[in-house]
Every structure is written in structure tokens, then in C-alpha cells.
Design brief:
783 residues; alpha/beta; N-terminal domain of TfIIb; Rossmann fold; Dimethylsulfoxide Reductase, domain 2; 4 domains; 6-stranded mixed β-barrel; 26 helices; globular; disordered N terminus; iron-sulfur; NADH dehydrogenase activity; Mopterin_OxRdtase_prok_CS; iron; 4Fe-4S
Length: 783
């Protein structure tokens, strides 16, 4: 243990609710009969009782109405799933999580709401598959080892490569699942101990293009708005975001504002997602042509003199270049390329331009492209020409997908180009600052940008990366082209993985280090809205696991470095001394502010109240102005032909999370979506003689897979959709590792040309879990 201090037959929602209640009743009855939770009988009589069915959001007020709370451990903490930043009380007893209950007094973002995963998907933390002891691989087989032996082996492997090939022959991957403190320590380890900027994280595979585009346009690679805008704006433009499944709490806020205040909702997406049902206008677009229709909106606004000339003149540069660039994006051109009819383009342009306020919302459907940064330039330009930014209810709002990808994935500097706080590593003054703080000679601080994560895999293919240390990520599934990722991992000289389960990636490792889960950790996460919030240990760590930051610190000690951190709060004290946007943030202050909305960065000093929305007076650029960048790419990196006539796009489903490391261990999640599938439009299905439930062979120029057909009108005719979460049947069996977006080096996940056919030999649906576990897990109830 760590020495860190404690701190029915119905379908759809109706079916889910019925099964959830049945399972909950059975579980509570069984527990009572076994006299395990007899003292808590009163609190659990209404477990899973009330629901906001559309978003699968549950009122927990009744969930514990029949138990004595003084007999239950109650810990307020931050959710470990998406980056909405929901907070709730975790109710536990004897190391078991009984449930969660939103506490609106300490939940500035979600209030009384959580999604289904935040409510019920926490049993993974004590799952029997959890890693509880370090593992070493001898002769191709794992064996348990002591911490001393395992850490010594990691040091030997990393230092051996560094000595023979230099520090830049190593690649380090940090975790956006881990706390800000753990990610800060990981970047320090890379730069101070190893001597390389080859450190990256999953942000590269999701919103790196967002960070790149916004940083060079308005200054911060983050949302400019907070919760107020999402709850009260007059207009929303949502694109590339299946909000109800990926960010259900945000979706509920938006739908409530549309219903109660008649806010305008515009949805542009290749799939008719659930948000489209609530939209004033849904425009079905062709995958990969986002710059085209956004530029079409900009042109329409300018041509009709609807742009905010005063705002443009006083607060921006580059407008003339944008005007020139968008000239070719006529309504006819937009319809030809992107599929948006002229009347829809005109209506959306007028709605946005004439609204008193507008929030521009997107996720990976806008960012995961070979020209993703240009897509973000275009979206930022649209906000700037309409003046919908720098105001309480208007601005840019990228929804982040992993619980701490805003903080741990960017703010803390586990990236190859920035120190913490987006301070470039190529700037000599920044290098001096961090070298002095780390008691290094500035010449020892690496001065060139390192490899991004997909570039690491490409470099490893060429022999330029010889070893990797991967913390809390599963790139075998998350990297584009699973076949390529597997080949790279198999050829590395040394691989160490730090995680909570033996993931698909960890199976290829020489050493596996067991880390604490979120529920066993202390620290902070940063939400999509820039809220920095405390994470508190709710249950004791199981087995012999350690916090991520402590493992990294102990590795540093073996290299001869003494960092002297005794708690995560000590690390935050170092962070706020080096990172201006976090300068006023401490654990103690976050605890004090937990009941009045928390702290949103930038927090410039300990007297600063935080920043609910950014750019009120100036943009975070050298001259204080927003810098518009032309965006004129039209075509995606590949287009259909006779051999690959269809387009595959990818995304998330509500009941799974990223590569399934946690949710594949949740019986309720698995009983709902335990395997991959392929959505196909009825017209496309008819053309290929596909029936609902058929197993399909799907082949791209880069790989192949099988998945079960689900005939639905959600995708375009000619477009298919496959979820990202699965190894077997998942989208990344088909995606490509290059080309990458130029500025951000992000892969193109959203456009892959494919062909399909009904499988000649139907082996049946392929489950996401190993065969030995499938029967047991399929028989258990929904969560």
C-alpha cells in the first residue's frame, strides 16, 4: 500500500431503466440476505430509482434514502470519465464503492446530474483483473516481482538505451487519466532525468489540433467559456460532437436551454445524432469537408454584411486574408463538396450572426483530420467575425473527452513542444526558468521539440526510437492502424507500461508497474471549462499499487534525483511557482472554494478569483489581438474510388470509454455494448445486400476487420460508422498512421475509405472481452 496520506425485453432507454432497476433490486436483496449491508438497508431502497431518460442521468437523491450515512464513508471527488468535470460524493464501505451521489454544493459544473458511467461504473477499481503487483517478463512470460526489482529493471532498460543511442532514442507517453500532479512529474522526469522532449499523451489523438489552432489564433488552447455560456447562450453551433453519448451532462444543459429559453440549436454532422432531434436545423455533411461548410458560413455572413466590423477592426488581425480565402466557398460549391444546401447555409449564417450570443461547440469530428488545425482556424474565424467571443455567454467550447486531458494532457506540459503552462521549450528564457527550478545547467535542458506520439511510432519503425515508457495509455488500440502499432511495440528494445490493468499494450511490455485508480488517488483534474478541481482518495489502494507520481519519483531517485514530494499538494506548490495560469492554485485554496464554484484558470495569483470566461479585454497573444488564419483545404487526405467506395467515420458510444480499460470490466456497460458494430444506411445496405445483424468484412487501404451490421438512418448513404473502443472490430483496424495534420501531427481518424461485404463464414459476434470471461459477464445485469 502507498504511504500517501488519506484524504426486460424493452429496448433503448426504457429497457435500460427496467433492467437497471431489476439488477439493483436483486443486488440489494442479495446483499441484505448475506447481512453485508444490513445497516444501510434504509438508504438503498430506491437505488437507481429516478432518471432523466434521454441522457441516462440519474437522480441519486433516492438512491441512498434508506441507509444511515454515518455508517458509510463519504468522499467528495471528481469523476474519472469524460472531461465535463462532474463532481459527486463517493459512498463506500470496507473498500467497496456502493454508489455515487451528486452534491450540488461542491459540484460547480454538474449540480445534481451525472451520466450513467459516473453514476454506476466504478466497480472496475476492485475488479479481480486489477494489477496489484509489478510484473517482469522472463522468456516471454510474466512473473510477479518486488517494486525494487521492477524499478531497477525499468532504470536498466531506459538507461541502457540512453547510454547507447542517446536520450532521444526514448519515447515517453503520459496519461490524461492521471492527475495534473502525476503529469507534471512525468514531464519533469522526461526533461530533467532522461534529457528529452520526446513526451506526449492522448491529446495528440484527440484535441491537439484544437490546441494548435486556438493557441495560434486566440492564445489559449482551451475553451474560452464556462458553464454559464452552455446554460444560457442564445445560440449553439454544434459539429463533430455526439454530445448525448460523449458528454451527456453538457447535452442536458444545452437541451434544457433550448427547451426553456428557446435558444437556437444548429447541428452540422455526418450522422443524425440525437442532438439533431432537438435542433432548429440539422445539416447532414459529408465527412472531411468541415473547412468547406464553415468557410461557406463565413462568406455568407460577410457578403450579407452581417459581420461585426467594429469587433474585427479593434480586436483582430488577418480579416482581409480570410475574406480572400473564403471567396471560392460559394453556396453552390459548399453544396457540391460538403452536401449542405444553400438555404440551410444561409439560415445558419443569419442565425449565428444575428444572435445576441453564440457558443461554438465541437469535439473530435472537427479535430481528428489530416487538416484538423485548419478546421479549428475556420471555426475560430467564424467566432471572431461575428464577435461571439470574450463575453460571458459567447465563445469557443471544445468538449474534451478524457477526464484530465485539458490539464494533464496540455496544461502540465507532457507534450514535446511546451513546458507546463504552454511555455515553448524552444524559448531560451523558458529553458533557463525550468533549468533553474530543477537545479540544472541550462545546456542540459533539451532545446528542440520532441516526437509526437504517432511520430514516435513512425520513428520506432525506422529505428530512431528504441524504447518507450507508457503511463496509463493503451496505444495498441488508440493509435491509428492497429496492425502498425502492434508491429512497432513488438520490435522495441525495451517497453515499460504503468497502468491499472494488463492492457493490450502492457501485454507487450518487459516491465509492468501497477498504479492506483482515480478512486485511490489524490490530486487535481482540469475540466473542459478550465475548472481545476480536487480528486480525493475514496478507497484504500488495493494490493501493492502506488500513485503514478510516486512511481515516477521513485524512478527518478534511482537515477540520482531527490525531488522530496511527500503528497500531491507538494507538487501543486511547485506547479504554481512555474506555471503562470496556475499561479494562484493550491490544494488548500481549492478546498476552500469547493462550495462557491471552484477555480477556473488562469488564476494569476492567490488573490485572483479565477476566470469564468477569457478574452474579455484582450487575447492572450503578443499584441493582445486575435490572429485569424486562412483555412482553404477542401479535400480530405483520401477520397472514395471504385475499390474503396464508402467512407468510414468513427466515434464513441455512451456505455464505453476510450479503449475499454475500465468499462470492459463493468458488467452493466458490457451487457449493453460488449462488442463492436457498424452502422450502415438502409440505401447502402440494400446496395450491398446487407441485412441487420449480418457480419461484415470491412477493408480499407490500411487494414481489415469484421463487425456486425446495424442498419440505421443515422449515417449518410455511402458512409458507415464504427466505434473507436474495440480491438476486435474496432475502427482503428482500418485507420491510417499517415499523413498527419501538419501543425499538430494528429492522425486522421474521421475519414477512411472502405469496402464492405457480407462475411462468407460467420463466426458470430466478436466480444470485446476474452472468451473465458464472456459468458459470465454477458449474464450479469446492466449498471
Amino acid at each position: 500500500m502507498s504511504d500517501e496520506p488519506q484524504a426486460s425485453g424493452q429496448q433503448g432507454v426504457a429497457g435500460f431503466m427496467a433492467r437497471a432497476k431489476d439488477r439493483a433490486g436483486e443486488q440489494v436483496k442479495k446483499a441484505a440476505n448475506e447481512r453485508v449491508v444490513r445497516p444501510f438497508e434504509h438508504e438503498f431502497s430506491g437505488f437507481m430509482g429516478n432518471a432523466i431518460s434521454e441522457g441516462r442521468l440519474f437522480s441519486i437523491a433516492d438512491a441512498l434514502g434508506d441507509y444511515q450515512l454515518n455508517d458509510i464513508n463519504v468522499t467528495d471527488t471528481t469523476c474519472e470519465y469524460c472531461a465535463v468535470g462532474c463532481r459527486y460524493d463517493v459512498l463506500s464501505k470496507d473498500g467497496t464503492v456502493l454508489g455515487t451521489r451528486p452534491n450540488p454544493e461542491k459540484a460547480p459544473i454538474n449540480g445534481i446530474s451525472t451520466c450513467v458511467k459516473g453514476k454506476f461504473s466504478h466497480s472496475y477499481a476492485t475488479n479481480e483483473d486489477r494489477l496489484t503487483q509489478p510484473l517482469l517478463k522472463d522468456d516471454g512470460e510474466f512473473r510477479e516481482a518486488s517494486w525494487d526489482e521492477a524499478l531497477d529493471r525499468v532504470v536498466e532498460g531506459l538507461d541502457g538505451i540512453r547510454t547507447e543511442h542517446g536520450p532521444n532514442a526514448l519515447g515517453l507517453v503520459a496519461s490524461s487519466k492521471s492527475t495534473n500532479e502525476a503529469n507534471y512529474v512525468m514531464q519533469r522526469f522526461a526533461r530533467e532525468v532522461i534529457g528529452t522532449n520526446n513526451i506526449d499523451n492522448c491529446n495528440r489523438l484527440c484535441h491537439a489540433a484544437t490546441v494548435s489552432g486556438l493557441s495560434s489564433t486566440v492564445g489559449f488552447g482551451a475553451a474560452s467559456v464556462g458553464v454559464e455560456a452552455l446554460e444560457e447562450t442564445d445560440c449553439y453551433l454544434i459539429t463533430g460532437s455526439n454530445t448525448t453519448e460523449s458528454h451527456p451532462v453538457f447535452a442536458t444543459m444545452i437541451k434544457q436551454n433550448v427547451k426553456d429559453n428557446d435558444a437556437d440549436l444548429l447541428v452540422f454532422d455526418p450522422r443524425k445524432i440525437q442532438m439533431a432531434e432537438y435542433a432548429d436545423q440539422y445539416s447532414r455533411i459529408e465527412p472531411g469537408y468541415d473547412t468547406t461548410w464553415i468557410n461557406g458560413l463565413i462568406r455568407c455572413i460577410i457578403v450579407n454584411d452581417l459581420h461585426d466590423e467594429e469587433f474585427i477592426e479593434e480586436r483582430t488581425t488577418g480579416f482581409d486574408q480570410v475574406v480572400e480565402t473564403v471567396e471560392k466557398f460559394t453556396p453552390e460549391f459548399v453544396e457540391e463538396k460538403a452536401g449542405v444546401p444553400p438555404e440551410e447555409l444561409k439560415n445558419a449564417a443569419e442565425t449565428i450572426a444575428t444572435a445576441d450570443s453564440c457558443v461554438f461547440c465541437w469535439t473530435l469530428g472537427l479535430a481528428e483530420h489530416a487538416h484538423g488545425t485548419e478546421n479549428i482556424y475556420a471555426m475560430a474565424n467564424l467566432a471572431l467575425i461575428t464577435g461571439h467571443i470574450g463575453k460571458p455567454r459567447a465563445g469557443l467550447s471544445p468538449f474534451r473527452g478524457q477526464n484530465n486531458v485539458q490539464g494533464g494532457g496540455g496544461d502540465m506540459g507532457p507534450v514535446p513542444n511546451n513546458f507546463p503552462g504552454y511555455q515553448p521549450v524552444t524559448d531560451e528564457e523558458n529553458r533557463k526558468k525550468f533549468a533553474n527550478a530543477y537545479d540544472m545547467d541550462v545546456e542540459e535542458m533539451p532545446d528542440r521539440e520532441g516526437f509526437r506520439i504517432t511520430d514516435m511510432f513512425l520513428a520506432a519503425e525506422q529505428g530512431d526510437i528504441r524504447g518507450m515508457f507508457i503511463q496509463g495509455e493503451n496505444p495498441l488500440i488508440s493509435e491509428p492502424n492497429i496492425g502498425h502499432a502492434r508491429e512497432v511495440l513488438e520490435t522495441l528494445d525495451f517497453l515499460a507500461v504503468q497502468d491499472i490493468f494488463l492492457t493490450d499494450t502492457a501485454e507487450h511490455a518487459d516491465v509492468v508497474l501497477p498504479a492506483t485508480s482515480s478512486l485511490e488517488s489524490n490530486g487535481t483534474y482540469t475540466a473542459s471549462t478550465r475548472h481545476v478541481q480536487l480528486v480525493k482518495r475514496a478507497i484504500d489502494p488495493i494490493g501493492n499499487v502506488k500513485p503514478d507520481w510516486k512511481i515516477t519519483q521513485q524512478l527518478a531517485e534511482r537515477f540520482g534525483y531527490d525531488w522530496e514530494f511527500s503528497h500531491a499538494s507538494d507538487i501543486m506548490e511547485e506547479i504554481n511557482g512555474l506555471t503562470p495560469i496556475y499561479a494562484g492554485i493550491t490544494h488548500e485554496r481549492l478546498e476552500r472554494h469547493s462550495e462557491d464554484g471552484g477555480l477556473q484558470w488562469p488564476v494569476w495569483d492567490e488573490d485572483h478569483p479565477g476566470t469564468p470566461y477569457t478574452y474579455a479585454d484582450q487575447f492572450q497573444t503578443t499584441d493582445g489581438l486575435a490572429h485569424m488564419h486562412p483555412a482553404d483545404t477542401v479535400e480530405p487526405s483520401e477520397t472514395p474510388d471504385d475499390d474503396y467506395p464508402l467512407v468510414m467515420t468513427s466515434g464513441r458510444v455512451l456505455y464505453q470509454y476510450h479503449t475499454g480499460t475500465m468499462t470492459f470490466r463493468e458488467p452493466g456497460d458490457m451487457s449493453y455494448t460488449d462488442r463492436s458494430f457498424v452502422e450502415i444506411h438502409p440505401e447502402t445496405a440494400n446496395a450491398y445486400s446487407v441485412s441487420n445483424g449480418d457480419m461484415l468484412d470491412i477493408t480499407s487501404r490500411h487494414g481489415e476487420t469484421q463487425a456486425m451490421a446495424e442498419i440505421t438512418t443515422r449515417p449518410n448513404p455511402g458512409t458507415i460508422f464504427i466505434p473507436m473502443h474495440y480491438l476486435h472490430g474496432g475502427a482503428n483496424n482500418l485507420t491510417k498512421e499517415k499523413p498527419l495534420d501538419g501543425p499538430s501531427r494528429s492522425p486522421e481518424y474521421k475519414v477512411t475509405d472502405v469496402r464492405i461485404s457480407v462475411a462468407e463464414s460467420d463466426a458470430g459476434p466478436i466480444s470485446a472481452v476474452p472468451p473465458s470471461e464472456t459468458d459470465e459477464r454477458s449474464a450479469t445485469g446492466d449498471d
